[in-house]
Amino acid sequence: MKQTTSGGLLPLLKKHYLLIGGALFFVIGTVIRFLLRDLPSGDSTLFLVPWYHEIQDGGGLQYLGHQVGDYNILYQTLIALFTYLPLQPLHAYKLFSCCFDVLLALLTAWIVYRVSEQRPELCALAAFTMIYLSPIVCINSAWWAQCDAIYTFFGLAALYLLSKKQDLTAFLLYGVSMTFKLQAIFLMPVMLFVVFCRKKRHLFYVLLIPAVMVILSSAGLAAGRRITDVFSIYLNQTSSYHAVALNYPSVWGLLSDTGHLINYFSGHEAVSAEQLYDFIKYPAILITGAALAVLMLLWLKKKAVIDLKSILMMAFLLCYTCVIFLPSMHERYGYVYEILALIIAFFNRRTISLVIIMYCVTLITYIHFLSDNYFVPISILSVINIVIYILYIRWIHQALFPKNNDSQPPEMSRFQLHEHLTAV
Q1: Global pTM?
Q2: In a domain? residue 376
Q3: Cβ-based neighbours of 387, under 8 Å, separated by 6 or more
Q4: What's the pLDDT score for residue 269?
Q5: Domain housing 347
Q6: DSSP 8-state code for residue 330
Q7: What digits encode the pLDDT tens for the residues 350-365?
Q8: What span, in angstroms and rounded, lies between the C-alpha atoms of 29 and 273?
C-alpha cells in the first residue's frame, strides 16, 4: 500500500513541480509579509497613518476636496476607501501594496518566460521567486508601506505591451502608472523613444497620459478639486527637498557629505546642503537630459532593433540614467530599474554579478533609512553605484549591438529570428 502511494506521488510531484514550487515560494513570501504587518516605519508613523486619520475624521470620501499630505488625488481616494475597511490603517496600506507585489512577481515571471530561450518555465518560476522573496520588494511594501510595486507593475505592463506594438493600451497603462507616482516619469523617455522609432502619433500618445491621470482623479474632482491640482501636486513634490542626494548613491552623492566643489568656485568657507543643492540643481538636470539624449541618439544612429529584450534594456538604462544623475533622489527611486535589472539577468547572464552588487547597495540604503544608522558613507556607495552603471552601459550596448550580427537580417534580433524560424 505504501509502495503504491509513493509510486503515485513521485510522478505527480515531477509533473507539477513548477506549480508546487511556485505555491511554496508564494506561501513563504506571504508569511514573511504577515510577520512584518505591525512593523512601523518613519514614513508610516509620521505621514501615512496621520493622513489616514485626517481623512477618516473628515468623513472619508467627503474629504477628498482637501489636499492631505503630498500624495496624488488617486492615492488619497484609496486612503479614503481604506477608512471604510475593518482594518488597521497600517495593515490597509501594506495589504494593498503587497497585493501588487504578487501581481508584479507574476508579470515579471511572464516576461521572463517570453524572453527565455532555454527552460522558460523554470526561469519564470525563478523570476517569480526572486521578485516575491526579494528583501527590497518585501521591505518596500510590507515594512515601509510604500507603493512602489504599484506604479512599477503598471509601468512594466506598459513596456510589455509596447513590445507587442499595442501602443494605445501601453500608454493607457503608463498613464495609470504616472497617476500613482511621479517616479513613473523615469519610464517616459523609453516610451516616447519607441513610438518615435515607429513614426507614430507622438502627441496623441503623450496626451493620453494626462487624460488618464484626470480620469483616475475624478473622485477628488467631484469633491471640488481643480483639474490643475492633479498636476500641481507633482510639481510641488519636485521642490519639497533641497539636498543633492537623499540617501540614494547618485553622482551627486559624492558631494553630499561635503561642500568642497562649491567652496572651490565660490571661495566660501562653509556651504549648507541647501546652498549646494541650489548650485547643483539646474546643471544636474541639464546633464541628465544630455546623457539621455546621447543614449537615444546612439540607438537611433545604430538602428537598434525594437523588440521586447531591447525595450527592457533601453528602459533600464534610461531609468538608471535619470536616477543616478538627477538631484534629490531617494533610495527607493531606483525600484523600477532594479526590477528591470533582474529580468535582464535572465537573458544577459554576464550582468548577474552586477545585479547582486546593486541589490546589496540598495539594501544598505534601505537599512540606513529604516534604522537611522548610516554605517556606510553615501559617497562610498556612490562610487560603487557609478561603476555598476558604467559596466551596465558597456555590457548592454554589447548585447544591443552584437559584433556578429552581420549574418542575420538587420531588422531582426537573434530572439526575433528564433521566433520567426520556430513559427515557420
Answers
A1: 0.89
A2: yes
A3: none
A4: 54
A5: 241-424
A6: E
A7: 999 999 999 999 999 9
A8: 40
